[in-house]
Amino acid sequence: MSELFDAVDALVASRSPLPPAEERKRLRVAHGLTLDEVAAALKVRRATVSGWESVKKPTEPRGPEREAYARLLEKLAELYPASSVTEEPAAPAVSATFTGTPAPAEVRTLSTGQASEAAATTATENTQTSSAPAAAAPAAAPRPARTTRTSSTSRRPGAKKAAPAGTPAGGTDPRFENGPLAVIDVEDDGTVLAYCTGGLVLDVPAKSIPALVDWTLREAKLGQPKLAGPGKDADPLIVLTEAALERYGLPVTLTEEEKHAGRIPEGHKVIKQLARADWKLTKRGFGPWARIYRPATGSERACVQLCIPSWNALDTRHWGEAGQLPPAELARVLGVYASRVMTPRGSTAVTGLELMTALHPPTRATAPDENGKRTGEHNPGSLGKDAIDPMNFPPCEVPDGHPVLKDLPRFHVRGPAEKLFEEAYDWARPMTDAECTLRHLVGIDVNMAFAAGANGLNVGLGEATHVKAPAFDPKLPGSWLVDLSHVDLSRVKVGKEWVELDGSLLPSPFTPKGERPTGPAWHATPTVAYAAELGYEVRPIEAWVRYENGRYLDGWYSRLRDAYLATMADLGVDADLAPADFLAAMDGYKARDPELAIVATAIKATVKGGLGKLRERPRGEGWKPGEPWRALSRPTWRPDIRAAVISRTRMNLHRKIVKHAAFTGQYPIAILSDCVVYAAGGESPLDFLPYREGKPLPGGFKLGINPGLVKHEGTQSVLWGEEVRERFNAPELNLARYIKDGTVTDVDTGE
After folding, report:
1. CA atoms within 13 A on the CB side of 698
2. Distance (Å, whole) CA 671 – CA 677
3. Which helix (H) or strand (E) holds 376?
4. Is the pLDDT of residue 150 over 50?
5. CA–CA–CA angle 475, 480, 481 (5° rounding)
6. Pairing of strands 237-240, 181-186
7. How confident is the model at residue 316, as a pLDDT?
8. What global pTM score does this model have?
9. What distance in Å separates the CA atoms of residue 704 and residue 565, rounded to the nearest whole number?
10. Neighbouring-strand partners of residue 146
11. Helices and strands: H and E segment counts in the chain
12. Which helix (H) or strand (E) is 306 found in, with range?
């Protein structure tokens, strides 16, 4: 009989009603569960659980999954009644301010008139956090103590609720109570909602793009406080989903012609609407990252940044699948990035450059004069508000086609004595017989190598001065024409001692391809300083030096470092882990919270992209060689700063390689940018890195998540490496390019 009862119970459970989709999501988030965790427990795909919670078109579970899902929701409903305030058992705390897992926050849907009143009661993020795993990574990091509560404010009947996103809700500045940004989406019934950080949802009354901009500035309370004293507050960011684009009369996707132009036509009806309402667009027009503004009056700014994912605003190379996320999840990803880096102003590259300016605003207010009036003046330590005249740049520092080179013959190719060529490593060599007897090739990768190269670096702030036969000064940023061909890597100084090395197995530090210089060449200050550090005399022939200089990138480095470390800690990779625990924690860390993994990738892209923007090349627009292009009008068009950072990064890496070779007798077989490959007897970096009692070689490679330390990039067999080189008939094929997963194509496109 009991079997019959069990069968009846199962039959009833299989047809039992489930709560609405938004309640399903509320219960999951209240318990601190991710979609991945629920999917793993029920043995279904993540997308399946997401469909069950979709507020637009929820799908219904069937069969045994429905029974199990109903039981889960029933248990969670007992723990988290809709009208109560409950707490989970407390967990140990760590230093990360915001956790990497969805956390309950106040979930509200507000009418326009209620937004101001309810914003004052927004729940403060609970700052208790959890301990990061120190060894093998579980499916998800431990959960922190959480407090969940429902809003006491009135709700519009039938309104939808967003899943709390585990992101800061805008800090304490009352002007920005609802966070830095909102994702605008449209329900099936036509209701327009703004999904903000922290799980907050606002009802949007705007029926056009001009009205949406006006609502954003007047009522939404979105934005972010300035990052530096004399700087400017960040403008609110509005992200438009495909449904929102349709609602406001914009195309869901761009045509090929519009993609090439980077904007919709000037005659589009929405642009005409904006013009009639006295709103303006920047020179970029209405594209994936449109900026809509009215000229500032006094200190008041009226500007809104738009982000349109379906127009490829969120490049998949840097933002992964962020553009495909539901509104609440996308608000979480962009909100975490905004709180830790800054509100996005465009691509990660554009944002990286904007961050430099935000931390070093070009002007500051003077002291009040006798009439109490303040004016703007140059802010010391910044690059100023005016771009350097293109004709005042040293010819050696600029890329081909620059106006200062317009008198060169048309097909002239500049050599090392005419052009500063500081780039990342792309070097490889054949393996020795001894290396071929080993079984594995192990790649290690320097974390945020270029950020580490920027830290503490003295760079030029103003124009360069040309000097003939200068005495080299390692503290003076500039470009130096000097012959370094006499530096012999078989005998160099390491610290204060001379050491003997096999120079034929080492790349030259002075060229990106690792080739030994053959005569005078232009080098940035860190490169020349390293030659002197190796024990060799340097005598520059001439130089372009910058007497006005400073550590312009220090704050930029610190903010991006902190953002990266906080995000990796949320993903279970703490900065203080022992080597073996660190390697275990890095194994599969992205799967613990795919959304936060997107943030980590975007932070790294912000570093590289921002530095790349310092030497932005022409981007079509009918440009011809010898003519100026748009980027030259920026104070932040500074190829000399980019060269100095790359130079220092390459020298930092070579210094570690030399230390390692001097101590172990091991030499790299391939280097690509910040990835180095060694032959080893085992599959782990610990099989060749010289750790003693948990301590690394001083000045050598050290495992860890901090910028400048290294992680495991990948391991392949020596036989794989030999087979690949034989297949492509390339004894010096750069295996560092393929070491991560072993996949090799016949197209070698670089990093």
Report:
1. 2
2. 6
3. strand 376-378
4. no
5. 155
6. parallel
7. 96
8. 0.79
9. 11
10. none
11. 21, 25
12. strand 300-307
DSSP for 5-30? Answer: HHHHHHHHHHH-----HHHHHHHHHH
Q: Which helix (H) or strand (E) covers residue 38, if one does?
A: helix 35-42
Chain CA centroid to CA 704, Å: 19
One DSSP character per residue, 150-196 reads B--S---TT---PPP-SS----S-GGGTT-SEEEEEE-TTS-EEEEE
User: By C-alpha distance, which of 533, 155, 543, 181 is closest to 351?
Assistant: 181
Q: What percent of the chain has pLDDT over 90?
A: 70
Residue ranges in 614-699 assigned as alpha helix (H): 639-664
Which of 95-109, 297-311, 605-619 is the least confident region? Answer: 95-109
Q: And the tokens for 191?
A: 């209701």
Residue 488 pLDDT more than 80? Answer: yes
Mean pLDDT, residues 306-320 = 97
Single-letter amino acid, residue 531: A
Q: In whole angstroms, what is the distance from residue 699 CA to residue 182 CA?
A: 46
Q: Amino acid identity of 180?
A: P
Rounded CA separation 93/132 (Å): 9
User: Exposed, middle or buried by CB within 10 Å (0-12, 13-18, 19+), for 86?
Assistant: middle
Instruction: Give the count of beta carbons closer than 10 Å to the beta carbon of residue 521.
Output: 23
Cβ proximity of 531 and 339 under 8 Å: no
What's the DSSP call for residue 487? -
Asked if residues 235 and 219 have their Cβ atoms less than 8 Å apart, the reply is no
CB contact burial 653-681 (16+ within 10 A = b; e otherwise): bbbbbbbbbbeeebbbbbbbbbbbbbbbe
Q: What are phi and psi of 714, to 5 degrees?
A: 165, 160
Rounded Cα distance between 142 and 96, Å, is 13
CA distance linking residue 308 with residue 252, whole number of Å: 9
Are 231 and 225 spatial neighbours (Cβ–Cβ below 8 Å)? no
Q: What is the rounded end-to-end Cα distance, in angstroms, of the chain?
A: 67
Q: Determine the residue type at 74.
A: E
State yes or no: pLDDT of 233 exceeds 80. Answer: yes
DSSP calls for 59-105: ----HHHHHHHHHHHHHHHHHS-TT--EEPPP----S-SS-SS----
Minimal CA–CA distance to 489: which of 452, 535, 543, 555? 535
128: tokens are 């208790």
Contacts for 548 with CB less than 8 Å, ≥ 6 apart: 460, 461, 462
Query: Strands 300-307 and 237-240: what pairing?
Result: parallel
pLDDT at 1: 55
pLDDT class for 159, splitting at 50, 70, 90? very low
What is the distance between the alpha carbons of residues 331 and 337, in angstroms, rounded to a whole number?
10
- What ranges make up the beta strands (E) of 173-289? 181-186, 192-196, 201-203, 237-240, 280-281
User: Which secondary structure element, helix H or strand E, spans residue 605, and what is its range?
Assistant: helix 594-613
pLDDT band at 577 (very low <50, low <70, confident <90, very high): very high
Give me the residue label for tokens 């009833």.
12
Task: Please state, in angstroms and rounded to a whole number, the distance separating the CA atoms of residues 451 and 570.
Answer: 21
CA-to-CA dists, residue 666 to 137, 435, 672, 677, 681, angstroms? 31, 9, 18, 11, 12
Alpha helices in 491-539 (DSSP H): 525-533
pLDDT at 325: 96
Cβ atoms of 489 and 501 closer than 8 Å:
yes
Quick check: 478 and 464 in contact, CB under 8 A? yes
Q: Which two tokens stand for residue 121?
A: 């009661």
SS3 679: strand
> Hey, what are 65's tokens?
């999954």
The two beta strands, 426-428 and 670-672, are: antiparallel
Q: Which two tokens stand for residue 583?
A: 């390697």
Q: Residue 129 corresponds to which tokens in the numbers above?
A: 């956090």
The residue with tokens 């340097």 is: 538
* Confidence check: pLDDT of 232 > 80: yes
What is the pLDDT, as a whole number, of residue 8?
58
Structure tokens at 546: 């910058």
Query: Is pLDDT of 692 > 70?
Result: yes
